[in-house]
Design goal:
The complex is a heterodimer. Chain A is of the alpha/beta class. Helix content of chain A is about 45%, strand content about 15%. Classes of the chains: A alpha/beta, B alpha/beta.
Amino acid sequence: MKDKYRLNIPRLNILSREKLELIHLSTLEVLRRTGVAVKEPKAVEIFKKGGCYIEGERVRIPENLVEWALRNTPPRITLSDRNGNPAMFLEENNVYFGTGSDTPNIVDLYTGERRITVLKDVENVSKVVDYLDEMSFLMCSGIASDVNSKISDIYHFEAMVNYSEKPIVFTAWDLENLKTIVEMAEVVAGGKERLKNSPFIALYTEPISPLQLAEEATQKLMLMAEKYLPVVFTPCLITGATGPVTIAGGLIQGNAEILAGYVLANLINEGTPFIYGGGIIAMDMATSIACYASSEFMLASAAFTDMARYYRLPMFSFAGCSDSSLYDQQASLEGALRILLSSLSGGNLVHDVGYIDSGLTTSFEQIIVSNEVIGMVRRITQGFEINEETMALDLIDKIGPGGEYLTSEHTLKHFKENWYSELISRVPYEKWEEEGKKDLGIKANEKARHILENHTPKPLEEKLKAELRKIVKSRDK
Amino acid sequence: MDILEEIAIGVEKGDSNSVHALTEKALTQNISVGEILNNGLVAGMDVIGEKFKNNEVFIPEVLISAKAMKAGMELIKPLLAKANVESKGKVVIGTVKGDLHDIGKRIVAMLLEGAGFEVTDLGVDVSKEKFLEFVEKERADILGMSALLTTTMTYMKEVIEAVENANLKQDVRVIIGGAPITHSYAEEIKADGYAPDAASAIDLVKDLLKK
């Protein structure tokens, strides 16, 4: 495990202890007073047994039950790679980045045109993520339109596990498909117990704002809790539409939605590896677009990360995403700001790298450029050492006024600690001109092509591959 | 391994002590100074120069190699003239009057030395009189000027005019560099060459001296 994932400078706190308490107590009040609508009767039954006040599908959760569940937080959630080796320690101040999921469109790498996503694109994104150093986990990025749409989620999983060794955060259309995907993961891991012991997958599922646990999402959450497998439960609340327009109100309502799911998971299995997180997304009141990169969303993500730390739960955060219709200056700047902020706040599982068009389109260029920005930001969050060697007082004295440091051993020994970018331009104008006047987007496009044309991810064992194929085929009717 | 090859590797690794010792040893073996220079010291610098262009090594590593080469050069320099080995070229270089910025010019000087040129570094805040004095004294092939400030770069023009007035324009090629300098400025003040960075400055000098 590399040190670079750990935040080595003070974490950015935007909520004081008092404000954290206030948000928490207010959330308890919402859960007690308003409660949540739970559309899955089995879940209502579990809440009832746990001591909740039930009226039909409305579940009101007492404070002590939430407090009990919060005492069960696992200290760390470890996600392994495909081979069962630990790859990510989701815990305080460890930051990992990955792609997003399920965009209907993609910008074609070779034509530059936006078109609908096909299965090959999911494979290609997996390959690129497998290659890139700063991408620690994989989500499918797009929805494949050229396979049986009822089980496209299963195809996505097969593609991801075949084309990358990195941990996978996946989506599933319904309980049946989820069962199939978990079965496939068990095959890859070498059995149920092995998968439970060193999971390389986490399910992404969500409550529906305001304050609803939908039938299928709840069933999926329950299955993961029963199996004691990692699950991300993340609302996508739109302020002013599906939640209060104010960040504080959105935060409290979203928190109530997450904690309702968290209580349910713990009533099923204490200490379920539950990943906290959520989007408090501002709606642009001129266009009705839910903005992925508004200042308010970024601020809310930072606040949510503070809440996650307060609860000692891993945070599912956002970065590298943009509202721009194409990969352009706006896409880079929005992507970069989100990367910086989610890093400084210490989000753990930071997803949506590569989203443009407010989450409707995947861009390879955005993934590649974000990978550079993450490297740059990691150098910042790594901080710097202060000791006798780095303070270099003897050297300063030896070189003296007017001297030079370029030929000193000290320089030679340490200059590589500086971070160097592959794509960010630092050449004089004439040289840049000579090299073909390429902007960042062109260079990112070339790099993505280079990866696709040259990188061969380590293939899955033939036997496992065939077994997965068989499972997929058996469901494709 | 051939001792010249060992010298080249010593230069490439930036190991001054071993380059010094090996050069001494080579001289006792009666290997000609021309061979030591070209097949040992310069050959090592060529490898490092190529690696630098391919982003495999960086400026501090090149400079350490240049330092190692210098350790060998010191020994053979007095013998070069006797042996009739022609120097690759003589360069007089400095930062122009009013400007105390040293480091960029220094990198160029060190890289030029590493490439086998004889370099006289006049330092910073150099007047046109001093430039002329050394161009004549050293019979320099190249006069290099550096400036970081837009307020001092205009002095380059004065130096070039002084070179013309002294009727030295035919004998010495004037090159300029520094952050605010552009190709068009070099043309405007009638410099013979300009390079945007240190590594290209070496290529520029080589090109100019071929002609």
